[in-house]
Amino acid sequence: MAIFTDPIKDYAEFGPGDAEWLHLLVGDWQLIADLAFADLALWFPTPDGSYIALAHVRPSTTHTVFHTDFVGERIRADLKPLVDLARQTQTIERSRETNWTTEMAMRVEAVPMVRNGRTLAVITSHMDLSSSRMPSRLELTYRQCAYDLLHMGTLGLWPDFASPTGSRRGAPRVGDGLIRLDAEGIVQYASPNGVSAFRRLGDVESLEGRSLAEVTTGLLRDRRMVDETLPLVVTGRMPWRTEIESRGVSLSLRAIPLRNETERFGALVLCRDVSELRRREMELVSKDATIREIHHRVKNNLQTVAALLRMQSRRMVSEEAKQGLEQAMRRVATIALVHETLSQGLAQNVDFDELISRQFRLSAEVASPSRKVRTERSGEFGELPSEFATPLALVINELVTNAVEHGLHDRKGTVWLTANRKRRDDKAEILNVCVADDGVGLPEENRSEGLGLQIVRTLVTSELGGRIDWKPREGGGTRVDISLVLDHPPA
């Protein structure tokens, strides 16, 4: 549902909070449409004396009377006099004659939305009368509730800025269960779904004629865990939401106080059984915690393997075997670092810039314990999925180690790491990574014979689905360019 308050601010005499009040109205008027069994349209006066439709809502409790969208259009000539009258009198006006269309008969009401003595807009309610029958008690109660709320709109008492505006899953709706209270909190009417919702909390035969606060209190087993807003909600004194849980059942409640010019004369309480929703949310939370714990344990196990490899390398007599174990230790430690990062967050994405900053310096220092090698990093990798982060960290580790051990080869120098993330013309997101050094340059013999470079080539082409290219660096040394497609353009 869109509301055109932004363009009309140019010629509307809005006071502080008026535009926000209309937004709050449209955000909550599905409630009115469901209670009134009617379509609602919001009309705003224009400078030329006409009206423009700001918003339209269809009921979920019955069929709609308007199948086409007319938001942004001007009001029909036959509807304008009724809207003019409601705007002038600032009272609810009903059409004296039944409004017949080619398909149905409609009853139309015009409700001025008045704030601080000024009519900001007018709501029209359109209800189908073609399927006339004796209305049930539920329908009569619902329509009375809708009238009471709309009447509060003419007094500027509804919508209330104290009403909840959050989008918490499981917010109760009219069809989930409705209970009407009097000023003392005694239940005047409870819909069948409302009664069923409370029966799931315990053995409740009926609600009508009983205090909802006493019924609710009697159903709670552990009163220490009760939300402090509960008493004000179940007595209908404040327009808040709360949630109660007992015997494995979770019930979401929302109160809407009913007021007139002088006092509060009752309240509506919407209720919804959200047990299944909360169970699924708890499962997701549990899964997130389990995944983080798995990453933490994998990290610990990999660090143990790295420590064992380090201990074994110290006992080796052969220098070649010792170097091989040390290289394996560094590779395991790199994978462990990715899992450590994943174990600290909720998402399965890695802040790769933070991870690689530590790994980049560490790789250069470990590969050159007796020489001073500078490292410089530029650009941003951004957040990467874990399936990208692990192989890419290994690739960078191998390339930096190779640059230090072979490119700089017993000399001082610098290793550069550059990242460039952008979108191509076809909307595909590309990550370009460059590892360069100012060392001796590319050797004449085959560059792909070493195990480290074989690992790099395999990871880039197979695991990352990218391209890799070695070339001489301008100014001396070697440059390795990697290009990866992070996501493909939409079809």
UniProtKB/TrEMBL annotation:
Pfam families, per the entry: GAF_PdtaS, HATPase_c, HisKA_2, PAS_4
Biological process terms in GO annotation: phosphorelay signal transduction system
SMART domains linked: HATPase_c
Residues annotated as domain Histidine kinase: 293-488
Enzyme Commission identifier(s): 2.7.13.3
PROSITE patterns: HIS_KIN
Gene3D superfamilies for the chain: GAF domain (3.30.450.280), Histidine kinase-like ATPase, C-terminal domain (3.30.565.10), PAS domain (3.30.450.20)
Keyword list, A-Z: ATP-binding, Kinase, Nucleotide-binding, Phosphoprotein, Transferase, Two-component regulatory system
InterPro entries per record: H_kinase_PdtaS_GAF_sf, HATPase_C_sf, HATPase_dom, His_kinase_dom, PAS-like_dom_sf, PAS_4, PdtaS_GAF, Sig_transdc_His_kin-like_C
Catalytic activity: ATP + protein L-histidine = ADP + protein N-phospho-L-histidine
Source taxon at top rank: Bacteria
EC supergroup of this enzyme: transferase
Membrane-spanning intervals of the chain: none
Keyword Transferase: yes
Gene Ontology MF term list: ATP binding; protein histidine kinase activity
Protein name: histidine kinase
Native source species: Arthrobacter mobilis
